[in-house]
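hey can u check if this looks right to u? its 354 residues, i copy pasted from the old doc so theres a chance i mangled smth
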Amino acid sequence: MFFSKGKNLVGLDIGSSAVKIVELKELGKGRGYQLLNLALERLSPEAIVDGAIMDAGLVVDTVQRAFSARKIKGSDVAIALSGHSVIIKKISIPATSEEELAEVIPWEAEQYIPFDVQDVNLAYQVLKGASGGEGNMDVLLVAAKKDKINDYTSVVSQAGRNPVVVDVDVFALQNCYEMNYDTDPGVARALVNIGASTTNVAILKGTTSIFWRDISVGGNHYNDAIRKELNLSFEQAESLKRGEEVDGIPVENVNPIIASVNDFIGAEIQKTIDFFKNTTPGENIETLVIAGGSSRIPHLREALGERFGIPVEALNPFNRVQIGKGISSDMVDEIGSSVSIAVGLAARRAGDTR
């Protein structure tokens, strides 16, 4: 179901802090997309922990509220997974026919995934224009644990929607970027989606994916640090993180805490990029593009720019998307940074192979 042509689907991103929904209309003849609908509904922090659904009822209710709040009628949806239950590998195998490849992949997968092959759903795609050496071919292999797929598709079904495509966060992120920006085949960019509990990193050269990784850091680290230092509730910490004053606590008191977490998250991203550089000699990242709700944390963009010494840009998921009637610019400005994954999913179609 990962790379599962037909009409556009509703993009449904079930994150650990919010449910995000995007509905697009393809305009045709290369004219891009129009945004038909947009929704974000906050999710209780105990509903999903480290990517695992702990309270399915809360998730179902939140998905239903998000659809109802904006009167979104589309029933066929695309969702995405990330985290430790999802493995992405580029493998090189002897060149073979499409029919033989289907038989070979499960055997090859056993060498590359840390799970029993019987416990995962496998998807793969031959990378065109890539060669693993003489007589070989490069294949993109994706594996996700069946129980995690079932957990997420189950809550979607219980919410009255039909999960048609199950994608992967980093691929949806790349899809969103390519919809909205030109790419240079000679330039490597790092796309970094900073969510509440997970940060997705996708490194592209032109439109070719050359590295993927999920990091277990995100916006919740700010909340935890603020709660610990100032003895506050999760909700109070969330407000302070957003730059709002709470119970007479000046925002200035929070700035050193935020700066410390900015440094921590920057260091974790740097570990991932250093690993990429060490395993991919000769490749240099020229731009860092950040997305996700936590990408708007005060001074994070500047801290990342100083750390990496390269331009850091904010991904605008609607850079080339026409905003439809009934969607205010204020709403787009407020939640736009949070919906890059949902935008990438909304451009998927049933039967997509990429």
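The domain at 183-315 is CATH 3.30.420.40 (Nucleotidyltransferase; domain 5).
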